[in-house]
Amino acid sequence: MNKKIKIASIGESMIELAPAKIGNATNGGMKLFQQAFAGDTFNSAAYLVRQFGTQADVFYITGLGSDVQSQNMRQRFVDEGINVDHITLVEGKNPGLYMIENDETGERTFHYWRNDAAAKQMFGGWSVEKIAALLSQFDLVYFSGITLAILDETQRSNLLAALGTLKGKVMVAFDPNYRPALWPDKDICRATFKSAAAVSDCALVGCEDHAALWSESDADIIAKQWCSWGAGEAVIKSGDDSCIILNEEGRTEVSPPEKLKPVDTTGAGDSFAAGYIGMRILGKNVEEAAHMAHAIAAKVIMHPGGVIDKSVWSPVEEE
Q1: Which residues are the active-site residues?
Q2: 190: burial class by Cβ within 10 Å (0-12, 13-18, 19+)?
Q3: CB 222 within 8 A of CB 193
C-alpha cells in the first residue's frame, strides 16, 4: 500500500453568513442568512480532501480560540476530514466573521469583521526555525495572500523565510487572493507577493487580482512576471476563460469544459487551486491538473457557499 502524501494548507477560516436558499430568502422584507465556516485556504483544504482524500492527508494550520465558535469550527474541520493536529490555540481570541451578498450573476460582495481574529496570531512568537520544522514534514504547503495579509510583519517575514529554507524539499503553492482592505498600501502588498513568488514552486494568479496591483491584465505577460519573480510555475486564471500555465517546459493553455451560469462564485478560485495543486503533487502534468481544476470549479459554482454541501458533491473523474 502506497503511503499517503501530506498536504498543509495555511490560513484563516471564518464564520460565514451566506444568503439563505432560494424560496426562503426573505422574511417580512428582511434577508435571511445561513451560517457556515469558510475561508480561502480552508475551502481549498476541504476540496483537497474531497477530491484526493484517498491519496492525501490534508492538515489545516491556523489559530483558533477556546470559545464555542472556535470549537465548532475545529469540529467542522474534523467532519470534513481535515487533520487539526497543528492548529495553534490563541486564548482570548475568536474567529473572524464575514457576510456574502450575491448579485443576479452570482458575483459576490464581502463584508468582514475580523480585526481581532485568533488566526492572526497562528505563528505568534514562533521563530523561522520552528515554522520550518513544522512545514518540513509535508510534501505540499499551500498558502495565500490572505494568509500573509492577516499576519503581522514579524510572523509574515518568518513564514516566508521558513518557506525559503524548504524550497526544493517541499512543494510550495501560493494563491495571491488580493484583498485591498487587508493591506496598509499596495507597495507593501506588491513587495510581499514578490517575496512569496520567490519561495513558491507554483503561483495561482487571478488576472483581476494582478491587474488591481500592477495594472496588467494580459495573462501571458502576468505569467512571465511571476516566473521572473521566482515562481517555478505560473498558473494564470481569467474568470471563466482559459487558464495559462507557464514553466520551464513552456506555455500551456487549457479551457474550461463548458460555459456555465454560476449560482455562486465564492469557492471558484479556491476549488480550482485544490484541483490543480492536488494533481501536481500526485505527479500529473500541467494539462491534466488544469482540466481537473476547471472541472472542480465548474461543479462548485453551481451551488451556494464557499464549501458546497456534501450532499451535492461527488469526486470528479480524471480524464
Answers
A1: 270
A2: middle
A3: no
State residue 10's pLDDT score.
98
The length of the chain, given as a count of residues: 319
Pick from 36, 43, 46: nearest CA to 16: 36
Residues 6+ apart with CB under 8 A from 11: 39, 40, 41, 42, 60, 61, 62, 119, 143, 144, 146, 147, 150
Residues 6+ apart with CB under 8 A from 227: 233, 234, 246, 247
250-307 pLDDT, tens per residue?
999 999 887 777 787 778 999 999 999 999 999 999 999 999 999 999 999 888 777 8
- 121: nearest Cα among 163, 62, 41, 60: 62
Q: Work out the percent of the chain whose per-residue pLDDT is above 90.
A: 77
- Residue type (1 letter), 318: E
Q: How many CB atoms lie within 10 A of CB 40?
A: 27
In angstroms, the CA 267 to CA 253 distance is: 22
User: If you search the block for the grid coordinates 424560496, which residue do you land on?
Assistant: 23
Q: Which amino acid is present at 214?
A: W
Question: Which of 70-109 are b and which e, b meaning 16 or more Cβ less than 10 Å from the residue's Cβ?
Answer: beebbebbeebebbbebbbebeebbbbbbbbebeeebebe
User: What would the pLDDT profile of 30-77 be if each residue is shown by its tens digit?
Assistant: 788 888 898 999 999 999 999 999 999 999 999 999 999 999 999 999
Q: Which of 222, 270, 268, 265 has its CA nearest to residue 246?
A: 222
Mean pLDDT of 208-233: 97
